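Hey, resending since the last one bounced:
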Amino acid sequence: MELYNYIKSLHLIFVITWFAGLFYIVRLFVYQIEANDKPSPEKEILQKQYKIMTYRLWYIITWPSAVLATLFAIWLLILMPDWLQTAWMHVKLGFVVLLIAYQIKCHLIYAALQNDVFKYSSNFMRLWNEGATIILFAVVFLVILKNAFNWVYGVIGIVLFSVLIMLGFKFYKRIRERKSNH
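The structure tokens again:
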């Protein structure tokens, strides 16, 4: 049981750093996209700095954290194989697959921006940043509540949370537009 607690602690540490990396990388994408609209030489100076920052965050923190969190999770499942028979774990693993898909999409965005290909607006990136937040909320509630989790209320809660994020995003966008017009 002591080994289990060490492995669980390491898993949680790397999940936290993984999410920190995902939250910050998308914020850096926003800045990098907005820097592209700046005049020279500010544009080139900012672009160079953001490329360095995103590279370091992505390859020194985010990817290693994702790999280590996953490896420690597999180790936990080896120690506790009965978890694979529980409904909450199936749902959690579904959200983990979504998180991995989110990371892969972020990697594609990262690669495009490193090559000065700007496919998305900064507003899209602000909204995209909420994807990891929704996954985080879902996974934490699943892990903490386990079998006590009421699936219907949980799904409704996640949908309502998503709607609130969208409304907050639209409200924030209006405020930014008003400030830029004044």
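The mean pLDDT is 91.

Sorry for the duplicate.
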